[in-house]
Predict the structure.
Amino acid sequence: MSLVQFFLHNRAQILQLTIEHIWLAGISMLLAIAIGLPLGILVTRRPWLNKPILGSANVAETIPSLALFGFLLPVPWLGDRAERLAIAALTIYALLPIIRNTAAGITGVDPAVREAARGMGMTDRQLLFQVELPLAFSVILAGVRVATVLTIGIATIAAAIGAGGLGEFIFRGLAMVNDQLILAGAIPAAVLAIAADLILGLLERRFRFAR
């Protein structure tokens, strides 16, 4: 059976696992943005938190994915379900690019623009939401782009703890020494990562030129 025939014969299962993969990566990214964006802003407002926050995110990034799953397993509520455990781990991995780019984007705003805004009587909150974040948006989006591609790739490991996703094909193929099974998981995962990179890249360029 050729690879194309294999894909056609197993299209329902491939589609189901692709949807699971998108769900795992999507929820993880939403959580990472919800956590990473405020932390990135906090770093710009409290410079002394730069090293603790970015340092912790850097350390988390260096931990092998399976080891991180093991570290999180004893955590109450997370260890009860594989999906929760996988989402928590993927969220942690996605934090560094978002925090770093949020901080870089805000600190990179032209000081003259910031001073002009303050001269107009803007409060710190108004300065952040009406000036700094809009001007830093393309840089922040670049961090989200990197984190998304990273998350889609690492999400294949989630199958190792029974969380589903396209990694199920990959691990099954490795166990059975079956290239078709491996490619059935690897090709859709690669297509998802490339598609996400292209879409977010287009958005990033659009906002960069719109500034």
